[in-house]
Design a protein that fits this description.
This protein is α+β, with helices and mostly antiparallel strands. It has a six-stranded antiparallel beta sheet with strand order 1-2-8-3-6-9. Strands 5-4-7 form a three-stranded antiparallel beta sheet, with no helix packed on it. It contains six helices and nine strands.
Length: 192
Amino acid sequence: SVTRYDLGTFQVMRSLIDNSDPSRTAAFVPWDWADQAGHQPVRLILAGRQRADFGRGPVELGEGDLCMCEPGQPLSTEVQRCEIASIALERDRLDNPKGSMHGTVLRADHPLGQLLGGHLYRLLHVLPALTTSSAAATTHVTLSLLHTCLGLHCRALESTAEDPLRARIVAFIEAHVHAAELAPRMLQRVFH
């Protein structure tokens, strides 16, 4: 099953892969959906496990792990049952000074992995009821976390450089990035 949301600057998709389904319909996930849409995905494993090969040998991904997949780069996966959230950023709006991040993995036990993964997990729950008035703030928080946690730089952040809310959110995250209580719910509580 696949659920997809479009927030303009990025898209979010939640998908379930289940190779044990006799009809095989639940096993289909369009891995290249982001590539076809001109996007670059960041994937979060919500449940289950996945073995991925980004062209440098297999990597085991478990619940809470995040990985970067760049379109046009080698990618093969093995999975029995796995639920994945993908956030896909518009490629033409990305400027990555680090170069290729294909195959970059941010583990669930890393503090930044917990922060970004927790935010993306919570984002999936609020998207169905997201109002137009809170969509912009939600987009900015998400892009700021992707920038802080993975080093992804999206030009959409530059276009809001004069936005005082964005500046407050970024400053808050940077000031509390190693604090145990920093979590997506805290950001939502402080800035909504």
